[in-house]
Design a protein that fits this description.
Elements lengths: L2 H9 L3 H4 L4 H7 L4 H14 L11 E2 L20 E5 L2 H7 L4 E4 L6 H16 L4 E3 L5 H11 L4 E4 L13 H10 L1 E4 L9 H13 L3 E4 L7 H11 L4 E3 L10 H6 L5 E2 L3 H8 L19 H10 L3 E2 H8 L3 H13 L3 E4 L3 E4 L3
Parallel strand pairs: 3-4, 3-7, 4-5, 5-6, 7-8, 8-9
Antiparallel strand pairs: 1-2, 2-6, 10-12, 11-12
Helix pairs in contact: 6-7, 7-8, 9-10
């Protein structure tokens, strides 16, 4: 039962009457921070004087059994947490028993490989892998977790009924079936840039540790690292090539803000065994790659156009285009700006 419902029962009033109480009276009755009360007041003004106060079945509210208590200690606590997926991971996030793996959307092949290797190692050690379902490092960590038979947890910057980016439709569905999807945004909430930055504080609050695999100097992953420092959550960073722009932010964290992660085993030795048993068999929702498609993936290198692939493989562009579309739907390749294709590692 939500805290508001419990308070309504305690005072012998209905939720409709409780809705009309002024902020100063709510403040007297609830031990909520002022920032949360301001959010409630803005929400009430937006919903009007007679809103539908029914609570969706997939919502966890402050005061409910299973509500992660440390979320209420945030400077801006979420009003609710909406979920989709298996019930077991809900208990794990309430105990901060997962590891966040984050980084840039524009990741290098090295960064993608590092994220995938880390995710697979965490799965084998029994740790759920949490990330933000963004392009690049997040997606590589999620896919590797799924392929290794682990428990992926994704905190979305959108409501659960939306998919962003749109080509993550299959990936998001797989996480919702075999792991857990979380969002503080109610159904049909508009997509706003600020929501993606705001979800980073939730990534940290639900985790035992945060690993920044790769990110430039301006990155949401650095917001996550800053939230981790504020919440006293351990931060690790994977060292990268100092000459590469995409690692300048993560390398800078090594100057006293994060511990260097030289191998996945180093993190596992620090954390100990995770709360889940190691998977006995690898489960993958992606079909095996044919020899033809493997040659196509190898020919891409770090990125190639359709014309370049046609020339290197000596195959008609029309035939290659069909293969590329199938690989994109499987989540194995990505079409970037300039119509250049690159493999998604992990």
């Amino acid at each position: 039962m939500g805290m508001l419902e419990a308070m309504a029962l305690e005072h012998g009033v209905g939720l409709d009457e409780l809705w009309t109480w002024p902020v100063d009276r709510l403040q007297q009755e609830l031990a909520w921070p002022e920032s949360l009360l301001k959010q409630v007041d803005r929400f009430r003004r937006r919903r009007g004087v007679a809103p539908d106060l029914s609570v969706p079945g997939n919502a966890i509210l402050p005061g409910d059994q299973g509500w992660p208590a440390f979320l209420s200690a945030l400077q801006r606590p979420p009003l609710a947490l909406f979920h989709q997926g298996r019930p077991e991971p809900l208990a794990l996030i309430a105990q901060q028993r997962c590891v966040a793996v984050v980084g840039t959307r524009s990741a290098s092949p090295h960064g993608l490989r590092a994220a995938a290797e880390l995710s697979r190692s965490l799965v084998q050690a029994g740790w759920p892998v949490l990330s933000g379902l963004a392009e690049g490092i997040d997606a590589a960590a999620h896919r590797a977790c799924l392929d290794a038979g682990g428990c992926p947890i994704a905190v979305l910057g959108t409501s659960l009924d939306r998919v962003y980016p749109s080509h993550h439709n299959r990936l998001q569905a797989s996480i919702g079936e075999r792991g857990l999807l979380l969002s503080e945004q109610p159904q049909a909430a508009p997509v706003r840039r600020g929501h993606f930055a705001a979800r980073n504080r939730l990534l940290v609050a639900l985790s035992s540790a945060v690993v920044v695999v790769e990110c430039p100097e301006r990155s949401g992953a650095l917001i996550t690292a800053r939230c981790a420092a504020e919440q006293q959550c351990p931060v690790w960073a994977v060292p990268g090539d100092a000459g590469r722009w995409s690692v300048r932010g993560s390398n800078a964290l090594l100057l006293g803000k994060a511990a260097p992660l030289l191998s996945p085993q180093q993190l596992i030795d620090h954390l100990g065994a995770g709360p889940l048993p190691a998977p006995s068999a690898v489960m993958s929702d992606r079909p095996a790659v044919s020899r033809c498609d493997q040659m196509l993936l190898e020919a891409m290198g770090h990125g190639a156009s359709l014309e370049e692939l046609s020339r290197v493989l000596n195959r008609p562009a029309a035939s290659l285009a069909k293969n590329l579309l199938a690989l994109e739907l499987e989540g194995r390749v990505l079409c970037e700006s300039g119509l250049r294709w690159r493999p998604i590692l992990g």
